[in-house]
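step: validate -> pass
step: tokenize input -> pass
step: predict -> running
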Amino acid sequence: MITQEKKIIPIKVSPIIVDEFDQIQEEEGLGNRASTFSFLVKYYHQKQWQEFEKAADELGDVLDRIDPKKIPSAKKQLGI
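step: predict -> pass
step: emit ->
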């Protein structure tokens, strides 16, 4: 089996961010900063998905209230 060496990309960040990472790591019981970063990315995507679902539900509610018979035809809207 061939294994590749993991590459580490150093990123210089404010000490405030490091402190926040350490606090999240401790509160969530995560193993290290890499797992904390993964946790934050997954959390962000989950929140984005929830916001998308909420927006889709709201749009569906609006569309349910529209009466298609009252919408002018495309030709009338364009003045053709």
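step: describe -> Residues 33-65 form the longest helix (33 residues).
step: cleanup -> pass
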